[in-house]
Amino acid sequence: MTMRWRPGPIFIILAIAAFIPLLDQVLPAKMQLSEAIRGVFLYAILALGLNVVTGYAGLLNLGIAAFMAIGAYTFGILTCEIYPFQLGFWPAIALTIPIGALAGFILGAPTLGLRGDYLAIVTLGFGEIVQDVLKNLDVVTKGTQGINPLPAPNFGGGEWTAEDEYKWYYLFFVLLVLTVLAIRNLERSRLGRAWFSIREDEIASRSMGIRVERIKMIAFATAAAIAAFAGGLSASVLSSTGEPSNYDFQISILALCIVIVGGIGSIAGVLVGALVMVGLNSIVLVKATAWMAAHGIGGQGNVLLSPNNWKYLIFGLALILAVRLKPNGLLPPRIERAHK
Amino acid sequence: MLDYQVFLQQLITGLSNGMIIALIAIGYTMVYGIIELINFAHGDVFMLGAFLALTLLGALGMEAWGPTGQVFGVLLMLIGSAVFCGGLNWSLDRLAYRALRKSSKLSLLVSAIGCSFVCMNLGLFWGGVPMKVFADGNSAAAPKDFPAIIPQINLLGDGFLRITPADLLVFAVTIPLMVALTFMVKRTRLGRAMRAVAQDPTAASLMGIPVDRVIGATFFIGGALGGFASVIYSLYNNTIGFQMGTRAGLDAFTAAVLGGIGSLPGAVLGGLTIGCVRSMSDQYLETRWTNTIVFCILVLILIFRPSGLLGSNRREKV
Q1: Which one of A21, A242, A250, B159 has the fewest CB atoms closer than 10 angstroms to its CB?
Q2: Is residue B267, in this structure, part of any structural domain at all?
């Protein structure tokens, strides 16, 4: 039996993404896309992580930003010149993955037995606590200053700077593709099917011999590892961990919006969701602010005239409307969910 | 001050704040008891209640009223915020949650998070209203001073401890409300209907109970309690901000879980405990670690006694 290969939605989306820098060559300077799309890649990686735990295993995690913070600070502490380790970019970014998984394990081990909504609250609280701890342990983490400067990769002629826009673009692109491939393989493995199974019915899965706690644990740790990886990347491209509140509840909710709006449990959905939500967040709002400033509208006086002040409303409505009108998202997964 | 004097003083602060937390916690526990939803937006409904109170205070110029007038003003704010928050909470249920009764719990929870964010944004906009109490609408996001219209005197004179009229107000508002609520749930028709719906919505509707209306009433009552809490919180702490709902919500939810979710006396016990833990931690440890400590309590309770201190042990249904 032969099967003709047809390009799926994931392939099409990624193939288009590969050509954005070429498009930038012909677009006027004001409409350059690649830097914003790089942000989309970063959040797509984060949301793919969240998708493993929330989409596949059905465990609502409201503290994914905390693992991103853990990755960013791990990367910072391993590489910055004020600490004894001083690793380079590649070993440090590789180490964010096991350390993120370990953090996921530490939070997950005692709490995964909880019912879904309690687990959601615990992860939310964890997200708040990680910020507090990073802010309060300023001896180690430099408090609100963040850790900097941090190294960038250095192949192809010296260490990269912010000028090397396209190198960063393709680095993020390649890492996103690798993440997608890894998750796609997981999705189709024995482990992935076990995740779907406990999402649909935990008790039935248990009686089929699935070790529910262990499978949940792996989902949790995988998500944490991917989020930490995204955190390390973000710290590297910014050359700073930034302050702890850069990894607040808003980021966790942005990731959740991406997954819910795009299509919970669907890789292609997450990619589209990341484009829509991050596009709104860091392209439309930012451009609107710049445009209004250029035309003398807004400023400090009127709260309604600052596009940034609409963020919570947009995220909130996105969640409410997506759940209500398109519960399976823009690009739902191919595998039908059991009817509930 | 002497050691035990400090301790007792912190205990008074802790109990007062604890009663406020308890009042918010009851809103969580009632809604959770009836439809098993953590109403994320509850903390933000509470926040909007405080904004309404400040608006009333500013619009009517209550600061200039005499002492008798201010007693009337406080009553007006209490009733205004309670009706407003109750109505808002009811509308959230009507507009966002009711359509999802048959969906998975996850969708309901996500919808509640969405409502929370929408409410938070409304609070941000509200802070930009060009009124004197909102600093003429400049810097909408900044915390707002809530004028202390209650005299800041010590009722015990130069006594050993300091008890202010605000402390008394907290207890004078919360205790009658809790008694009335307990009576309502235990003795009235509506209360019986609520307990029936909590136990089994299908069976309740077969018995002729209008399930959706009872759930709506529960949201209204829970929200109204949040409204009362928002006014006494503002008068007690004298500063409000559009992000205060998240923190207050997390504390109150922790209190509800600590006491045993679904249980009214549990919510009160949990609220008082959390209030005291917070004030003791502020005094004897460091303020910046207080939130971490409250969170650790939440995790420990959930792991070792998920049914809480007073909750019954309910197993998740198949």
Answers
A1: B159
A2: no
